[in-house]
Amino acid sequence: MSNSNLFLYIGKPIKNEYGRIIGKVASFALTPSGKFDAVFVEFGDGQFTKQPMETLKFNGAEVTFISKIKNQASILCDQIPLIWRKDQALKDLNEKRKIAPDLSQELHNSFTSVLTQLKKDAQIIVDEAAIEIERCHEEISSLSYAIANLEIEHEIGKVDEENYKNAFALLQETLKRATIEKTDFELTKSKVSSVLLGDSQETTQRTKTYAEQVTVAQKLPEPPVVVYVKEIGKAGL
Length: 237
Description:
Shape: flat
Order of helices and strands: HEEEEEEHHHH
Largest sheet: 6 strands, mixed
Distance between the termini: 87 Å
Helix content: 55-70%
Number of domains: 2
Strand order of the largest sheet: 4-3-2-1-6-5
Mean pLDDT: 84
Low-confidence stretches: 203-237
Number of strands: 6
Strand content: 5-15%
């Protein structure tokens, strides 16, 4: 999309990934060379912030705000295993004496430092996702109560049919969005947690011996014996 076309989005509503309007495009920040650097966003609560270009997706007439948590989680889920594999490859090369010990140690320290920081960032994402999950849970609970009260008031005749249908449709749509959002954050939290857990368990898993696996197999219970009994009716007596 050309630079001039982006200015057409000024004043356009911004929706999150679940279709909820959260604000509007106020303006853009450009570099001296004319490259778009950031977007100024006015959120629904009146807050005015500057957001990186990659946090928004411009598609046709729609502007979508991409979740920072999901975006960072995706990056971390790629980077952590990559750095870990590089460090393991370095260890293997060092054992084969293909890299000088001093250089190998220097690279290992570098990988360890990067991995430690990535793990800290990942834990922050896990904690932030947990907060969002709780927020969605509270919203879903409130919407469920709202639907229940609407049903009661409609049942006793205090809400007419037309208003009931309109309100019910609105609440159901909002409940659907909140449920999808909660599921997304749960999946994001699970993926990042799995990457952190997998990184710490990978070495143990690789060093597990065949004998240990056999021992585990030997401890498994014997499969049950199924006996089929044919029922004999009176005609068979």
